[in-house]
Amino acid sequence: xxxxxxxxxxxxxxxxxxxxxxxxxxxxxxxxVLEHGKKADVVERNPGTALELxxxxxxxxxxxxxxxxxxxxGTRRTVxxxxxxxxxxRAITLxxxxxLAGDDTPGNVRRLCxxxxxxxxxxxxxxxxxxxxxxxxxxxxxxxxxxxTAVEALEGSGIPVAAVSTGFPAGLSPFKQRRExxxxxxxxxxxxxxxxxxxxxxxxxxxxALYDEVRAFREASGDAHMKAILATGELATLRNIARASAVxxxxxxxxxxxxTGKESENAVLPxxxxxxxxxxxxxxxxxxxxxxxxxxxxxxxxxxxxWLMLMKEELGxxxxxxxxxxxxxxxxxxxxxxxxxHYVTGRYSAAHRHPMA
Length: 357
Prior knowledge:
Layout: E1 25-27, E2 33-35, E3 38-39, H1 53-57, H2 63-76, H3 81-93, E4 95-98, H4 106-117, H5 122-128, E5 139-143, H6 147-153, E6 161-164, H7 175-187, E7 192-196, H8 199-203, H9 207-221, E8 225-229, H10 238-250, E9 255-257, H11 269-286, E10 291-293, H12 301-315, E11 327-329, H13 332-345
Parallel strand pairs: 4-5, 4-11, 5-6, 6-7, 7-8, 8-9, 9-10
Antiparallel strand pairs: 1-2, 2-3
Helix pairs in contact: 2-11, 3-12, 3-13, 7-9, 9-10, 10-11, 11-12
């Protein structure tokens, strides 16, 4: 075995210059975070508010300013060495490990669930000094037909199953059918529901109709947490994205999510910045915390760090835990594992050393 040249990581996820900004934290089995040894408060569900049309219509976005700010996220600060390894372990605990392919099978989903339980090889965790940390993904996301398979495979793990519903990815099936699909997924054991909005409501400025649609989906979700997918690559402008974000939160979405992963443009930092600031504005006005999920196109460890930096700078450290932040990821885990192995051994490994990543 190669000589380990890496230091064992600490549970603090910042570099030394940033430690005063982010308290020492570690992940618990239920996805909560222990800060200074105490369990963090549970995030209450977003009950929504009445639709404020004047506020929605008054939202404007300075595109050039947003793009300039987004361009600095990956250049203004970095994390290196053991702090980078710690941040990457944190990123794993924020993943909705996802398979949404037409050729998904029960066997494929069972393997994915096994990966969600043990996302990093035990020998790497041992070398990192993280064997005692419950490193696992935040959820497993599948189509409705495979919810029972995933629920069975994850039994006893504490990892929830998320189902994509409402005619994913286009969201153009009949309204009644979309609502019944949510109820069926919840009945099958899904604890989280990822719904897609009707993009035409946004493009036509039909904010009352969008509000009513999302509100109905929220009611159909019952106790399951609901993530509203905006499909931002199909909404034409950043202003539309900001307004749609506001309406979905007013309608009771527990998370707002960038993309289905099927659009030509998925999660990008300027869009993430606009949505994060919409969340901050909603929190400042209502006191309700809404989560954020970038999905689609996030494939590298470097990208995951940029998203974590965005959330920390725009919303604070509370949005660096599974209750309020998720990655929609399929291939991201593989690159993070390769980076962790490089940290331990000094060499990049072949992808086949990290199965199902």
